[in-house]
Amino acid sequence: DLRKQARQLENELDLKLVSFSKLCTSYSSSRDGRRDRYSSDTTPLLNGSSQDRMFETMAVEIEQLLGKLTGINDKMAEYTNSAGVPSLNAALMHTLQRHRDILQDYTHEFHKTKTNFLAIRERENLLGSVRKDIESYKSGSGVNNRRTELFLKEHEHLRNSDRLIEETISIAMATKENMTSQRGMLKSIQSKMNTLANRFPAVNSLIQRINLRKRRDSFILGGVIGICTILLLLYAFH
C-alpha cells in the first residue's frame, strides 16, 4: 500500500515538474519576444503576470507533494525496521533506496528549476529598470542631457583622482616598507658589531695600544724633526 502511494505521488510529481519546467521556459521566451516586439522600451517587462502567479501556485503544490512523498518514504523505512520484517530482506531495502533516490532527484530538479526561474525573473526586473533609466535619459531635454554629461565627466575625474591618490599611497607604503627593512638591517649589523666588540675585549685593548703607540711615534718623530730644524737654523746663522 505504501509503494502504491509512493508511485502515485511520484507520477504526480513527474507531471508537475514537467509543467513547471515548461513554465520556466515559456516565461523566458515570452519575455524575450516582448523585448523584440516593443523597441520603444516603454512597456514594463514584469507586471505581476499570470505566469508569476502560476509559478507561485505550482511551487507550493510541488513542495506539498515532496513533503507527502518524504512522509511515505519515512513510513516505508519504519516498516522495514519493524520487528515483524526480516532484517535481511534485500528486496525491501532495494525498493526503499530506489524510492529515496527518486525523491532526491525530484527535489534536486525542483530546486534547480525554481532557482533558474527566480534568476530569470530577477534578470528581467533588472533589465526593465535599466531600460527605464535609458528611456528617461533619452527622453530628457537637451539641458538635462548636458547636465548629466557634465556630472558623468565630473564623476570620471573624481574616479581618476581617487586612482592617482591610491597609487601615491601605494608608492609611499612601499617606500616606508623599504626604509623599515633597511633600518632593520642596519640595526642588525650594529648589534652584531657590538656583540663582536663585547665578545673580544682583547682585540679592543690591542687596537687601543696600537693607536697609542702610533700617537707616541708621531710625537717622537715630530720632536726629532723640530730639533733638527732648530740645529740647521743655528748652523745657518752662524
UniProtKB/TrEMBL annotation:
Pfam families reported for this sequence: V-SNARE_C
InterPro entries: Golgi_SNAP_su1
Transmembrane annotation, as ranges: 219-237
Segments for region (Disordered): 28-49
GO cellular component, one term: cis-Golgi network
Localization terms from the record: Golgi apparatus membrane
Top-level taxonomic group: Eukaryota
GO biological process: endoplasmic reticulum to Golgi vesicle-mediated transport; inter-Golgi cisterna vesicle-mediated transport; protein transport; vesicle fusion
Keywords for the protein's UniProt record, in alphabetical order: Golgi apparatus, Membrane, Protein transport, Transmembrane, Transmembrane helix, Transport
Main location: Golgi
One annotated GO molecular function: SNAP receptor activity
Topology versus the membrane: Single-pass type IV membrane protein
Family membership: Belongs to the GOSR1 family.
Function: Involved in transport from the ER to the Golgi apparatus as well as in intra-Golgi transport. It belongs to a super-family of proteins called t-SNAREs or soluble NSF (N-ethylmaleimide-sensitive factor) attachment protein receptor. May play a protective role against hydrogen peroxide induced cytotoxicity under glutathione depleted conditions in neuronal cells by regulating the intracellular ROS levels via inhibition of p38 MAPK (MAPK11, MAPK12, MAPK13 and MAPK14). Participates in docking and fusion stage of ER to cis-Golgi transport.
Protein name as catalogued: Golgi SNAP receptor complex member 1
Organism in which the protein naturally occurs: Chauna torquata
